[in-house]
Structures are given as C-alpha cells and as structure tokens.
Request: fold
Amino acid sequence: RAKELGRDGIALFTSEMTATVRKKLSRTDELRQALLRDEFVLHYQPQVDLQTGRIIAAEALVRWNHPSEGLVYPGDFIALAEETGLIVPLGEWVLQTACNRAKAWQDKGLEPIRISVNVSARQFQEKRLIETVATALTESGLDAKWLELEITESLIMKDLAGSIARMYELEKLGVKLAVDDFGTGYSSLSALKRFPLSRLKIDRSFIADIPHDADDMAITSAIISLAQKLDLEVIAEGVETEEQARFLVESGCNEMQGYLYSRPVEEERFNLMLENNGGIHRKPMVRAALLG
Ligand code: C2E
Ligand code: MG
Ligand code: MG
Ligand code: MG
Reply:
C-alpha cells in the first residue's frame, strides 16, 4: 500500500500532519493569550443532599469565553491545556477563583457549602500543587474543610505510591478528596482503603440508563454499598430523571448532581439558587423523586 501511495501520497500525508501541528500550535497560543486576557469563567453546578433536597455543594466547571467562538467547553480545551502544561496556571486560576467564590457566598451570610474543584493528572503531579492549594485557601480566607478536590481513578493509578503520598499531603491541609468518574477506571478495590478519601462520585455512564439497564443498576448499588462499608460518602453524577433520583435514594446514596436539579450555571444564577436553598419543597421534580 505504501508503494501505491508513492511520493505524492507521502507528501500529502506530511502536509496534513503539518496543518494539524500548526493548528495545535495556534490553539495553544490562543489558550496562553486567554489566560492573560482573563477569558476563562467558572460555572457552578449544585450537588444536592438526597435526604433534604438542599444544595450542599457546588462543582466549579471551567469555560472559555472565546472572543469569536463564544463559550467553549472543557471537552474542547482541557486535553490541550494538559498536554502543553497550560493546565497548571489555568488550574491555579480555577482554584483561586473557586475558593474566593465559596468564601464570598459565606460572607453574604449564606449557609456554607462545599466547593469541588477538578484536578487533572498534570496538576496533581506538580510538586507545587500543595502550595497552590494552600495559597488559594489563605488568599480567599476559606476554611480548608469546605474545599474538595476531584481526582480520577486513572490519575491515581498512574503512580500509585506518589498519588497516595500527595493525597496525604493534601489531607494534612484539611481539604477533602473525591474520586471522580468512579467505576470507569481500574483502581484496585483494596487500594481504595489506603487512600485518605471522603467521597466516591459514581460516573454518569452508570446512571444514564437507569432504570432500563439492570447491570448499571447493580453496579450503581454495589458502588453505594462499597462506599458505605469503606465509610465514604457517595454522590451520583449525571442524574437527569426522577426515576434515577428515586433509585439512588432507595439505594442509600448520599448526594446527587445532574440536570434534574440544575445544569452548571453562571455565578449570578448560582447565587439566586443558594438564596432560595429551601429544600425539597422548592423543586417539584426533585420533591417527587425524593418523596417517592
Ligand atoms: P466532570 O468533572 O466529570 O464534570 C461533570 C461533567 O458532566 C460536566 O461537563 C457537567 O456539565 C456534565 N454534567 C453534569 N450533569 C449532567 C447531566 O445530568 N447530564 C449530562 N449529560 N452531563 C452532565 P463539563 O463542564 O463539560 O466538563 C467536562 C469535564 O471537563 C469535567 O468532567 C472535568 O473532567 C473537566 N473539567 C471541567 N472543569 C475543569 C477544571 O477546572 N479543571 C480541570 N482539570 N478539568 C475540568
Ligand atoms: Mg468533576
Ligand atoms: Mg465526573
Ligand atoms: Mg464524568
């Protein structure tokens, strides 16, 4: 086949490669500029207590307010930021901004809620992560117990010994740790109990087909019992329907996050939700799910 392609085939292939590389370079440059120009924003998605229906936490999710493309979602730039190392300064910005926001909510007299921040592999491996987290807490004045970092199983497993050490350093600061997208990686269950974790986040792929997929229901309830037995909190992500919420309540899950309650929203809208955080009577759909 290589012979058939001949010189022209190879030349074409090479020029395509060059185009890809060039595009990547210019996108990287754009990302770097975006940091300087302050084009990133955080949206916040509520995490809801399944007993009371009240918002008890927010996950901070970054978006890029692109000057010509509009709002760009993390699926379109986090991988490149990770690859180029730009995730480190971006991650610092996210941490500081999220901590400032959580503290500002408290200062307004709103009931304190936890703030969850995603940390990617590259950030987690950086030695200065501990310092970054400590600085974000000091600068914002947020008590460490309100900050939770979400890390993935695959990140932990990449360098198990190193990750465990890093997790203990973070625990010493007083921050909480959650395993994001739980069930999609391949952490050995016996390793789980060696981690200073607070929470498992059941990946939304297991939630999506409840109540139609019996296997997913079995996996979800198994993760919930596992969490209970290891004395961990457990939250389900991607909860979109009343049936899913009801199943989670019946299975003993602590919390949920998903479009059923709310999509990730801008700061101002999250403010309003917190001000009206009156529990299950506020949201008919959620109330129906929780009361069965
Ligand atoms: P994640 O941490 O698993 O975040 C949950 C994602 O699921 C978010 O997508 C959220 O909008 C979406 N989601 C929430 N509820 C539902 C639902 O009911 N149905 C469906 N279909 N989706 C739902 P988003 O904001 O596009 O973020 C995607 C991923 O990008 C995140 O997955 C996280 O891994 C990464 N990410 C986001 N913000 C940051 C950040 O500040 N730093 C780092 N390192 N990664 C981030
Ligand atoms: Mg997350
Ligand atoms: Mg997740
Ligand atoms: Mg996920």
About this structure: The first helix runs from residue 2 to 36. Residues 180-181, 201, 237 surround magnesium ion (ligand 3) (CB under 6 Å).
